[in-house]
Amino acid sequence: MNIEMASRQLEALGNTTRLTLYRILVRAGRSGLAVGQVQERLGMPASTLSHHLKRLVDTGLVRQERAGTSLICHAEYPAMEALLGFLADECCADESGCAPAQEAVAQAEAG
């Protein structure tokens, strides 16, 4: 991952509504949630939800797929793991035996 992509993803998650939305999708697991279900959980108008979803999709943190008449939203776990790894990769890089970095990488890999 490059710093530009990490910056875009962190910027997208820097919005309280998008972070809440993303956490809902992460909690939903690999099966994802229909847009209507997400809208119910957040209690927001469809147009507002669409705006926030677009930002997350554009940064690669979320993907959407059609299932019949429903639009299903999924957290992109590999993208999340890459972002977490990017943040932890250089933790204490100038200090030998940094336990926080080793623990963070192990947790990200355990998924």
Describe this structure in words.
- The chain is α+β, with helices and mostly antiparallel strands.
- It has a single domain, classed as Arc Repressor Mutant, subunit A, CATH 1.10.10.
- The protein has six helices and three strands.
- It has a three-stranded antiparallel β-sheet.
- A hairpin with a 2-residue loop joins strand 2 and strand 3 (70-75).
- InterPro entries: ArsR-like_HTH (IPR011991), HTH_ArsR_DNA-bd_dom (IPR001845), Metal_resp_trans_reg (IPR051011), WH-like_DNA-bd_sf (IPR036388), WH_DNA-bd_sf (IPR036390).
Features of this protein?
alpha+beta; about 110 residues; Arc Repressor Mutant, subunit A
Strand order of the largest sheet: 1-3-2
Specify the CATH architecture: Orthogonal Bundle
Domains (count) = 1
| Count of extended strands | 3
Percent of residues in beta strands?
Answer: 5-15%
Shape field: elongated
Please give the share of residues in helix.
55-70%
What's the CATH first level?
Mainly Alpha
| Quaternary organization | single chain
From the helix content, strand content and strand pairing, which structural class follows?
alpha+beta
- Our Rg estimate from Cα atoms comes to 16 Å
**How widely separated are the two ends?**
18 Å
Summed over residues and divided by their number, the pLDDT gives a mean of 90
**Fourth-level CATH superfamily:** Winged helix-like DNA-binding domain superfamily/Winged helix DNA-binding domain
Residue ranges: pLDDT <50 for 5 or more in a row?
Answer: none
